[in-house]
Amino acid sequence: MLPKIDQTQMQSETCIAWNRVSFSCADFVHFLVVPLSCCSTVFLFHSLVAPLSCCSTFPGFQPKGFWNDPLDITEGDETSVGLTTPLFDDPMSTRSLDDLKRALGESAANGEDLRYSACAPERLLRIFSHTDEKGQEPPPLPREDQLKNRLLAETIYTRVGSGVMSVQDTVSLAKHLSIGFPLALRDDQCWTTIACAPKDACKADNTCSEAYKHTELKCNAWQEDNPTMNRCNMTLQCVGRQSGEACMAAMPGICNCPQEWETGSFACSKKCVREQKEQLTQAGCNVNQLIAALARQPPKSTEFMNGAVCHRDTNSSDGEGGEGFCKCVPSHRCALCTSGTHYRVQGECIPCPQNPGLIIVGAVLGIFFLCIGMRELDKRQFNLAFVSIGWDYFQVLALFADADIQWPQLLQDMFRMLAFFNIDIDIVAPECIIPDLPYQDKYFATMLMPIGMGIVLFASWLMNICFDKCRSFLVGSWLCLGVELL
User: SS3 of 67, please?
Assistant: First the structure.
């Protein structure tokens, strides 16, 4: 049995816990002992990174060099950390399993933390909310059990204090909060802060530098030309705009999901694209695009209009923010370069050359004239060891571009030009010509470059032999013909 608690102590303890969990308005009715002023209490522990109040669960301001990343925690529970295969065979489930492991963290058998929890325990309540086949949660435990779990949660808060919360404490605390506050909002996603690479890619408040905007600029230009396709109630409509207005208009009726800023919208969207594929396809939607977007995969350069999310419009005509608008966004963590204007070299996005096609032509002509020059030197019995020494020297100089040093711009440009001697495919800026060039294609092209160069040199050697043989044969034929004539 719980010890008897007087009213003042109960209000104080409940008020502290109240500010660590997001609540629905029904909580005001359910917890009559908690005054409204509790919603304005200041956080007491630094580990609570999520904003309080019974209205908002979205992340706040993010400093430069960091990114607020939403983790999908809609599939599985605490036992899913040990899984190696996702619950469903699609990219959304693969992403969710990885996110769940990041959110909960990982610990060894001896209890040592291998990876800390990425999210605050107050945002992990959904993981510990067990639902039945219809998606309904079991009835809440008796009031006495709820109060007991609140006190257990407060015990963990007090014991940890301002220290770092372990994985075990995070899991235990989230469980106690889930049971102790049955009407607390169960967010579909928890937000975590991660560093950007390079640091200058991310500006403040989840925005990117000019070189790392991916399709955002093209998306903004498209929205100005298509103002009728910017209204939304769910992000699923924004990421399916390439399929047309009919698809956007049909989604709310087919999915019947809460609005994007309401709890359960993200999980409902995932369920919709899994269970309503035929109806979405009949409405003209590209289901594969929708699945990729919900798995946080960035759109292709040709799908730039899909690179947007639905934001609540607080200035809408109804005065209550009942409608949203599509806002163009860059890739997560500003990981991709601005499409069509920048490409990645040595981990940084740099401007594309003005005429990348001419660079390819110049590289091919350079190899051609190099073969001719080497042949002429060989004919004159020139010692090619000097060429080899010079070639190696330029290769070593080109490697300095990979060093984490702020070289002057002139030296950087020189190092990049010398990459030609390393047979580096980046010298022709392939992403500027093919923005959606898959990494594996570029990787294998780089690996096959030396083999390709060997084939070209071997072919050049064969052609040289054939040319000498043919010339000798032709010269001999003309001499014989002259002798006969004489």
Answer: strand
